[in-house]
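FW: tagging you since you asked about this chain on Friday. Here's the raw sequence from the shared folder, copied in full. Didn't touch anything.
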Amino acid sequence: GVADDNGYGWAIAKSLAAAGAEILLGTWVPALNISESSLRRGKFDESRVLPDGSLLEITKVYPLDAVFDNLEDVPEDIKSNKRYAGSSKWTVQEVAESVKEDFGSIDILVHSLVNGPEVTKPLLETSRKGYLAALSASSYSYVSLLKHF
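HL: got it, structure written out here
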């Protein structure tokens, strides 16, 4: 996912845009409003500059929580969480369906997301539960995206 302009996903999106690709992004649902607001306010404008001087154009940003393959996987506490209010169709399956509906097929899928409840801890202080949560969010999500796209 791309929620700001300082990660691998942003750099890859810029490179693909410079090569002529149309850019669609997925952003973690709780970060979506901040990300879209930052784009609108021009916070990322300096880092949107491409080698030819034009700006990276983002065709569409989809809300995405790649931990959940489909709506049936989402626990009630997440469905009712205020950070998810106002967003819909954010599971991997729903985003894939929305992209297909909006654009048909895609040519390139870039997986650039990392998340985990203990991501700031040193490795040896990470619990098994925290490690497995990070693997699910950061690694298995790639398998799920490939399966649904």
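FW: The mean pLDDT is 94.
HL: agreed, and The domain at 8-112 is CATH 3.40.50.720 (Rossmann fold).
FW: great, closing this out.
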